[in-house]
Amino acid sequence: DIDDVTVTYPGTDVVALAPTSLLLRRGLVTAVVGPSGVGKSTLLAALQSFVAPTSGAIRVGGTDIATLSPEAWRSRVAVVSQDPVLLGPTVADDVRLRRPDATDAEVDAALRSAGIDPASLPDGARTRVGDLASDVSAGQRRRVALARVMLEPAPLVLLDEPTAGLDDATEADVVETVRRLADAGSAVLVVAHRPSLVAGADDVVELVPVGVGA
Fold it and tell me: Between vectors from CA 31 to CA 202 and to CA 176, what angle results, nearest 5°?
């Protein structure tokens, strides 16, 4: 429950996020749209307790997340950023970050669900991340991060433009994966520009620049 949240960064009078309210529910996909600079990234940061609301509150089960340990709260949140970092040493290790005991078959299935055929990698899921560093695209990194989330879904999943830079077929795979995350019980918030992501959402929330509609 995001209740009339605004964010103004310390030391400035610039409003990074105008008053915003929305409900996130497990089993549903909420798409957040709006022009560049409207506060989508700030909203994601607030939902991860990286920035505190200047006013309003973010609550889960009636509890303000500001009263929770940031580490404890973040353990309940899975994030796929626009340009995630692969930690390695192998692709499989990255996918297993949230669930270290996953089997090889489960890792391969998670990669396929995120649009990566393990057979297309030089050494399958055992491919060392360093071997990919020179040519892996941001889209591929997002798919590895998405596979990590698919392997061990969190109660809250935040996706920042997960289909950016993907071809139509891979984009369709990712849109289907986003739906499966919700169907598995996660509350999914996706920052979206692509029409396919917006069309696949259960709810669409448009953020507006500061002063618009006031």
Answer: 65
| Contact present, 125 and 154 (Cβ < 8 Å) | no
Q: d(Cα 122, Cα 138) in Å, to the nearest integer?
A: 18
Give the 3-state secondary structure of 90-120: EHHHHHCCCCCCCCHHHHHHHHHHCCCCHHH
Alpha-carbon distance values, 96 to 126, 131, 188 (Å): 12, 18, 20
**What does the alpha-carbon distance between residue 117 and residue 129 come to, in Å, rounded to a whole number?**
16
pLDDT digits (tens, 9 = 90+) for 4-40: 999 998 888 889 999 999 999 999 999 999 998 899 9
Are 32 and 191 in contact by the 8 Å Cβ rule? The answer is yes
Entry field: residues in the chain: 214
Which H or E run contains 204?
strand 203-206
How much is the pTM? 0.89
Phi, psi at residue 144, to the nearest 5°? Answer: -65, -45
d(CA 33, CA 193): 6
Residues of the chain whose pLDDT is less than 50? 134-135, 213-214
